[in-house]
Amino acid sequence: MSLLVVYNPASGNTTAGQYTTSTVLPLLAEHKLTPTKIASTEHPGHAGTIVLDFVASLPEKDTTITVVLISGDGTLHEIVNALYTAQTPLPSIRFVLIPGGTANALHTSFFPPPSSPAPEVQGEDSRRLASLHAFLSPTPHLTPLTLASTTLFPAESASAATPTSVISLVVASTALHASILADSEALRASHPGIERFKLAADANATTWYRARARLLPPVARYAPATREFVPVAAAELAGPFAYFLTTTNADRLEPAFRIAPLQRPGLASMDVVVVRPQRDASLAGAADEAERTRFKERLWGVLGGAYADGAHVDALYEGDGGDTVVEYFRAAGWEWEPESGDEKAHRVCADGTIFTIPNGGKAVSTVLNGHKLDLAVYA
Ligand SMILES: Nc1ncnc2c1ncn2[C@@H]1O[C@H](COP(=O)(O)OP(=O)(O)OP(=O)(O)O)[C@@H](O)[C@H]1O
Known about the structure:
Elements: E1 2-7, H1 16-30, E2 37-40, H2 46-56, E3 64-71, H3 73-85, E4 92-99, H4 105-110, H5 121-128, H6 130-136, E5 142-144, E6 148-153, E7 164-168, E8 171-174, H7 175-184, H8 195-203, E9 211-216, E10 219-223, E11 228-232, E12 235-238, E13 243-247, E14 270-275, H9 289-303, E15 327-331, E16 333-338, E17 347-350, E18 353-356, E19 362-367, E20 375-378
Parallel strand pairs: 1-2, 1-3, 3-4, 4-20
Antiparallel strand pairs: 5-20, 6-7, 6-19, 8-13, 8-17, 9-12, 9-16, 10-11, 10-15, 13-14, 14-15, 16-19, 17-18
Helix pairs in contact: 2-3, 7-8
The structure holds adenosine-5'-triphosphate (ATP).
């Protein structure tokens, strides 16, 4: 069996190399496993090249390879995008994920922390190695990865421009989340931990995003009263939006931030979390700074429920029969058409990477079915 170990020394708190040497390689050796190759990423984009070069170096009979990856989500995102655009036949790829990044959304979704805090350090370390233990176990278990493809289309009048596509595994978003990711990158050096996301969130809290969104069928909407998804015909969503985020594979973006609590690894669909301020009947509809500031309190209060095990999806507006503050859907994809002139509404985030929709264009994101990649995680 071909075994590639890849670590990103720049991810998270920059200790991935040290952890690989001190813990990962000795554990593989204990199980009499010698990696075919061990590689450190040397620059952005290198992880994809490492994996493709490794595949190219293998004998053709190798139909399955294992990649032990010590990094955050961004490095896996680069690998999957490189694999997706490769022109050569590819083996099945099984990932052992060892969190080395800042947020590690995918790993923490596969291996969530216990709901009541377990303070002992040993628990932390065994969770960090959980995917490796799943790989080394006598009865290894694999969970397939669901991929989404997001395409940014130029305006129809821009005949010479070509659409750009990106694959995501964890999150594809617009509105507040995309703004947070766009602005937090500038804070990486000064705030290497997850506090940079909170600072960026504060700076964008009163922004509303003018766009039209459409969910792609089949679409179902979560109903808190029955705690079930109810099929809905078409889901045209008029803006403005405060929040528009979709996930595949992941129910959380950080260990405690369970933004899509009904999502499960292995589901071949997207969960869609939407907040549209003008559904708030207590606002007069002025959409001025005063209303935005009032709605910010509501938004913060409700999204704070993501830190309480995903309670935000059940939050209701005041009054009898109050509607949900958060609209939570399950869908095959979405379209997002920003209003021209609303610059921030043109931002799209795919697994932390920010893209800009061309003026007059739109973004279309769909779950990929029956594609050429066979990817799974030991989990
Ligand atoms: N040697 C390197 N020097 C600088 N940057 C690198 C190097 N190798 C990889 N990178 C870049 O590091 C970036 C961050 O990596 P990664 O996403 O794994 O960690 P993170 O951002 O800390 O974690 P998470 O995505 O889980 O929040 C990647 O986008 C990748 O392009």
